[in-house]
Write a structure and sequence with these properties.
This protein has 9 helices and 16 strands. It binds 1-O-pyrophosphono-5-O-phosphono-alpha-D-ribofuranose and zinc ion (ZN). Zinc ion (ZN) binds next to loops.
């Protein structure tokens, strides 16, 4: 019997979302052990367990309350939600990884180059509702063939003329001589939570984790920059710092005309940025990664 005081978070067992999902939990402060082939990662410093499951099962597990939360692709979540009248789970956060698109694709030499050319054809997919609602929306009457996996080989098997599947790098399509003809839906990974009430301790813990997720998301791409600059150039230097409004300005011991400037840049700091800063008189520039931020 599962311990109701421990928070259960479903994560993709093996696939595009596995490593970034586990890394997110580590960045939220969770330490866990992961035994080979073990489908549960036991949280050692917090009462949280990560359940490693098929990504397509995650919405159901969360909707049923078997898991309290889950990290799943936006398309998988939307496909599941389309089958339900009421909200089957809450989308608590959209994350900054797992970007992919749901695309119509056809064999390279098929002559099927537009969604309109699919009229009367068969389209294989694991996302029948998203696919059907798209085709219906543009008035194309095509047969949707539901496949649980290996959708990309359906045209070669003669099971379909086209597919509607997730594309991330495009490698799977290329390897199967398929070309993208239309993007139906775009998404990133999201953190979904159960609609069922949780025991107080688990609910407090979930809130804490969500706050930490916000902290991780907030520093995404952020850099801490430190430099020395002429006192007379503080305003000019500040304008050059990407995403900075009010930097910290500190005196330099024994030096009246130069100061130290420290700031969190919320946008990328490129070499060009540093060169422009140098041009404005900055020196001793250091750019550091930001690990955590709590407002
Ligand atoms: C999707 C899709 C392709 C692959 C595409 O699978 O079904 O197999 O990703 O990625 P690529 O463009 O980088 O080659 P998913 O991660 O959903 O795994 P699953 O099909 O096993 O659920
Ligand atoms: Zn999947």
């Amino acid at each position: 019997m599962a311990d109701p005081r421990r928070l259960k978070v479903a994560v993709q067992k093996s696939g595009r979302l596995t490593d970034p999902s586990l890394e997110l939990m580590v960045r939220c402060g969770l330490r866990f052990s992961r035994a080979r082939d073990n489908l549960v990662c036991y949280g050692e410093n917090m009462p949280i367990d990560l359940l490693l499951v098929r990504d397509d099962d995650i919405p159901q597990l969360v909707a049923d309350g078997d898991c309290d939360a889950g990290i799943v692709g936006g398309n998988v979540a939307r496909e599941f939600a389309l089958a339900h009248d009421s909200e089957p789970f809450r989308t608590a956060r959209t994350l900054d990884f797992g970007s992919c698109r749901l695309c119509l694709a056809t064999p390279v030499d098929s002559g099927l180059d537009t969604p309109a050319s699919l009229a009367g054809k068969r389209v294989a997919t694991s996302y029948p509702r998203l696919t059907e609602s798209f085709l219906r929306g543009i008035g194309i009457d095509a047969e949707v063939v539901l496949l649980g996996g290996a959708v990309e080989i359906a045209p070669r098997l003669g099971k379909a003329d086209a597919i509607c599947d997730l594309v991330s790098t495009g490698q799977t399509l290329r390897a199967n001589h398929l070309k993208e003809i239309f993007t139906v839906d775009e998404s990133r990974a999201c953190l979904i939570t159960s609609p069922h009430p949780l025991p107080d301790t688990a609910s407090t813990l979930l809130e804490r984790i969500l706050m930490r997720v916000d902290g991780v998301l907030a520093v995404n791409g952020s850099k801490y920059i430190m430099l020395h600059a002429p006192r007379a150039k503080i305003a000019e230097i500040t304008r050059l710092l990407p995403g900075v409004e009010a930097p910290t300005v500190l005196p330099l011991d024994g030096c009246t005309d130069r100061v130290a400037i420290h700031a969190v840049c919320t946008e990328s700091v490129f070499w060009e940025t540093l060169e422009a800063l140098k041009g404005a008189g900055a020196s001793a520039m250091l750019v550091l990664p930001v690990e955590k931020m709590l407002a």
